[in-house]
Please model this.
Amino acid sequence: MHHEKPSSLHSNPFQLPGRWYRGNLHTHSKMSDGAHHPNQVVKWYAENGYDFIAFTEHDRWTDAEVARQLSNGLLVLPGVELSVGLSRQCSPMHVVVIGDVNGLPMNGGLTPTQALTQSWQSGAFAFLAHPHWSGLSLEELAVIDSIPAIESFNYASDLENHKGLATIYWDDILGRGQATFGVATDDAHFHEADHGGGWVMVKASRFSAEALIAALRAGHFYSSSGPEIYDIRMVDDQLHVKTSPASAIYWVSSGCFGWHAHAAPGQTIESAAFYIPSGLKWIRIEVCDPQRRWAWSNPIFLMDQGSEQHPN
Ligand SMILES: [Zn+2]
Ligand SMILES: [Zn+2]
Model:
C-alpha cells in the first residue's frame, strides 16, 4: 500500500511550527466494554491535562457527530477498534482507526491488512493494537502487508499481564525497511486505574480533528508514559536531544546499533548529543525518567528520500 510518504517522514515535528497537543487515542466507555459513561471519561481526561481523546469502542464507530456531542472541554476524535481475527496463539487481534471509517464493515470480517489499508486509504489514521498482548509472532507480523503505525505501548496491557510494550515488534518492522510510527495509549476501560499511563504528543498547526489526524498520518508526534521530549535535531553527524529530567536517553536503530547517555546515580540529565555513524537508515529516541517511565520518538529517516529503503 502507498501512504503519502516519504516526504512527510523527513519533516521533523520538533522543527515544525504549531504547538503540541496531548491525547489518548485508545479509550473505551459503556458504549462497549468500558465501565463509565462517555461523559465521565471525557471529564477525567479534560481534568488531567489532555487536549483530545478518541473513543475506540469494539466494532462500533463513534462517528464525527457523536464525537462532537461528547466534546465537553476536550476535543473528541471519531474512532473505532476493529476486531481483525485471532492470532495463532488464539488471542484477539485489533486495529484502531482514528477518523472517518466510511464503508468499513464493523462485523469483524476484515484481516489486519485490509483494516489498516482501507482505513488509511479513506484518510484515517490507523494502528495495529497491542501486538504483544495479542500473542502475535514476528512471522504473523511480517505477512501484514503494510503497517503505517503500531501500538508500541498499551498501558492497560502493561497493567493486565505486562504485555504492553511492543518496541520489539516496531523495530522488526523498521528493520525490514518499512516506515512505521509508534503510538502509546491507555486502552482505558476504567474498571481499574488504567488511564493516564500512555499518550501521544502531536504537533499541529491548528486545534481541530482534521489537523490532528493529518499530523498523526504524517508522523508529527511522539509517545510517552511520563517524560517529555523538547527537541531532536541532527547537526551534521551529531544528534542533539533535549528532554525533561531523565535518568537515561538512548538512540536506537537496526540490529545492535544505538547508544546511551546515562545520568549518574541519583542525578538526572536533560540533554544528550550523540555521534551517528553514516549508513544507518533510521534512528529513534527513547527517554527513561527516574520513575522508569518512558518517552519514544518516531523514527527519523536518515538517508535521502527517493531511495529504495521505503518499499511501502
Ligand atoms: Zn484491543
Ligand atoms: Zn481497546
